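debug: dumping io for the single-chain case to check the tokenizer round-trip. Nothing else runs in this session.
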Amino acid sequence: MGALSWLEGDVVPAPVSPEQELLQQSDIQLLDAYSRAVVGAVQRVGPAVVHIQVRQRRGDGTGSGFVFTPDGFILTNSHVVHGASEVHISTPSGERFPAEVVGDDPDTDLAVIRSAQGSPSVPLGSSRKLVVGQLVIAIGNPLGFQHTVTAGVVSALGRTMRSRSGRLIDGVIQTDAALNPGNSGGPLVDSQGQVIGVNTATIMGAQGICFAIGADTAEFVASRLIRDGRIRRSYIGVTGQAVALHRRLVRYYELPFPSGLLVLNVVPASPAQNAGLRERDVVVRFAGTPVANVDDLHRLLTDERSGVACEVEVVRGTELLKFVLTPQPRAE
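debug: decoded output
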């Protein structure tokens, strides 16, 4: 009797139980839903994403951006266009047009440019309701590969990152959606196709640790850049991050939000230290306006506040305390 010869077609698959079949169908449905979410978001935002080419003293550079107003204003990173002598954009269809720098803010690594050529636009959404683990999509032009899409999740919220000007950028979104040189300035998008951030940086040598400036910060900065061409700020001398407040404190003091700004550091001889603020205080109001996070405080520290005494309410332990401080102009 000869040796047995097994053919690939002779392998009989193991029977699948009804439970296993339901699980497989459920997995397929989940993958289909994931794909539909990514495709839908890209179809909504993708036409507004542009490739930016710049000419600078140190050489040519590239980056990404997206049209966020119907009249052609484009949001990108400051480090993409800062100091540029010439700027051009390329649309997804391959057309190339000149653009001009409207305003530039190295402190938040954001800039606005404009092209006279009409392009589809996508408005900025909000980063306030983001949760860790939710799906996000990055669209950009990494390493010259135009209109590249990557997907991942929100890895963390409320990160702090130092800008190239040396200022700490608070409220940064961390994501594992892959970013590479050239993605800078492109949109970070949620599953509904809402722009929730502006991609800005990666940690060199790390895998899946990427950062984006939140859309709420970007909206405020962009509006000021369009109006004034720059951001003028006042200074109180604290760094911090959003923190949840105990429900009993919120109810007892009738606080407007269930969160505030936790003070992580008070700069010596600053207006905040002179007024009596300490580390671990939680700022809940500034000049009568509720403060729920870093973005809220940044919006209030405008140049108009410089030299004007302002009341600050903080939660210290279980007490609600009030201080008066005078913001000072921030050195450029």
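debug: round-trip ok. The chain has a mean pLDDT of 87.
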